[in-house]
Amino acid sequence: MTRYHPLVKRLLDGESRLAELPPELQAEGAEALRLLAVADRTPVSLPAALDARVMTAVRAGGRSPSARLWRWIFEPRELRFRVRPWVVGPALAAAAALVVLLNRSPAPRRGGSTAVVAPESALVRFVFYAPAATRVAIAGTFNQWDQSAAPLVRAGKEGVWTVTLVLPRGQYQYAFVVDGRRWVPDPAAPAVDDGFGRRNSLIAVGGGGRAL
Amino acid sequence: MPLVLLAALPVRLTAQQAVTARLDGRVPPAVAAAVRGLTDSAVARGLPAGPLVDKAIEGAAKGVAPERVLVAVRLVLTQLDVADGAIRGGGIGAPDAETIEAGAFAVAAGLSGSEIRDLVKVSVPPYTPAATLRVAGTLAAMGVPPSATLKLIRETVRSGGATADLQRLPGSVQAQMARGQTPAQAAAGLARATAARGSPPGGPKTGKGSGNPHRP
């Protein structure tokens, strides 16, 4: 590519005339003008209908409102968040509280058990009323009669104790253990003789994780 | 025959090891030894050993004297025996452990061998004998007389409802009892209501003269 003197470039841009160039640049300027004249400088004429054709094509390629909505919903886009660090902690705490609230079991009855439906097991809430007890546990065939496996916690100040267990499908016998020594059947459940002079309560978790 | 015995030996050893593992540390050694003898006897007769071990562990956990624990374990063995015989009498030649345990539970709840047998005969698909016996035992434990228990279950099976209908019976009886009815009244009322709904076309059919379809 030929590199012209800046004054010659001004000449080519129409900003000066050949006569205004210094004598030593006259030849270079003349040659540049000659080369420029060789190029085809015929004015371009566009068909009159071109604009209409182009605009028709553009409109045909455009999306309908529903297509644009679909794209707006499903097409991936890059989102950028700017988070203030002190907001993260409370936001996580609020999310955790929401999860807990959504997963909360129904309110307990005054004694007995309630269950939340699950495919092959159930969350069963056992409730026992023992205002004078200092500790209450539940033991049964589901935990090898281990009275330390499932302690109940006091719910409020009215002597109601409760615990929620995950029980697979099946039938179980159980009893509440009060203060580590007294075995008491659930007053709200059917019971059978335990063979030792006491009664065992019954609970069945059936198909669909339903406590029966 | 000796080859069959040799093949069964590892299974039996495994069962013994499982029993030992469950008893160790949970029951006194003397009780554990006696219970192992009883479980061996049960397994040799085709009875499940689990309920015997459960009862021994339960007795020890409750602080029951060893000799009384063994009495209770022997009682469970007897209930398993009664249930096994009744279930076979109901048409199931080789009942599985689940069915035998369900039958023993029903016996413990107060049902007799003949009632167990009748319940097995009533249990046509989709109602399994184990489920029927569990529900019957629970109803008996709730105080429903055996005759009313049998009638309610028979009507429920005849109505051709889902197995869940059968499993819901204790809860339904309990709901009626909460309204002041006796267990017998509650069961009789539910049986009448179920009978009134009738049997749907193509539903389960019960009756004499046909073998138990649950027969293996």
What is the end-to-end distance of chain A? 93 Å
Helical amount of chain A: 25-40%
- Number of strand segments of chain B: 0
Q: Any idea what the radius of gyration of chain B is?
A: 19 Å
Q: What fraction of the residues of chain A are assigned to beta strands by DSSP?
A: 25-35%
Major sheet characteristics of chain B: none
Q: What is the percent of helical residues of chain B?
A: over 70%
**Which stretches of chain B of 5+ consecutive residues score pLDDT under 50?**
200-211
The secondary-structure element order of chain B is HHHHHHHHHHH
Rg over CA atoms of chain A: 44 Å
Which outline of chain B best applies? Answer: elongated
Shape call of chain A: rod-shaped
Total helix count of chain B?
11
CA-CA gap between termini of chain B: 22 Å
| Structural class by secondary-structure content of chain B | mainly alpha
Q: In percent terms, what proportion of residues of chain B is strand?
A: under 5%
- Structural class of chain A comes to alpha+beta
Please give a structural write-up:
- The complex is a heterodimer of chains A (212) and B (216).
- Chain A is of the alpha+beta class and 212 residues long.
- Helix content of chain A is 30%, strand content 25%.
- Chain A has helices at 6-12, 23-38, 50-61, 65-74, 85-102, and strands spanning 112-116, 121-129, 136-140, 153-155, 160-168, 170-178, 182-184, 191-193, 199-205.
- In chain A, the strands form 2 sheets. In chain A, strands 3, 6, 7, 8 and 9 form a 5-stranded antiparallel sheet that branches. A 4-stranded antiparallel sheet of chain A has the order 1-2-5-4, with no helix packed on it.
- The radius of gyration of chain A is 44 Å and the shape is rod-shaped.
- Mean pLDDT of chain A is 77; it is low at 100-110.
- Helices cover 71% and strands 0% of the residues of chain B.
- Chain B is mostly helical and 216 residues long.
- Chain B is built from 11 helices and no strands.
- Chain B has helices at residues 2-23, 29-44, 50-61, 66-89, 97-108, 113-122, 129-141, 146-159, 163-167, 169-178, 183-197.
- Chain B starts with a helix and ends in a 19-residue tail after the last helix.
- In chain B, α4 (66-89) packs across α6 (113-122), α6 runs parallel beside α8 and α7 crosses α8.
- The A-B interface holds A 139, 141, 144-147, 171, 181, 183, 190-196, 198, 200, 202, 204, 206-208, 210, 212 and B 22, 26, 54-55, 57-59, 61-64, 68-69, 71-72, 75-76, 102, 105, 108-109, 134, 137-138, 141-143, 163-164, 167-168, 170-171, 174.
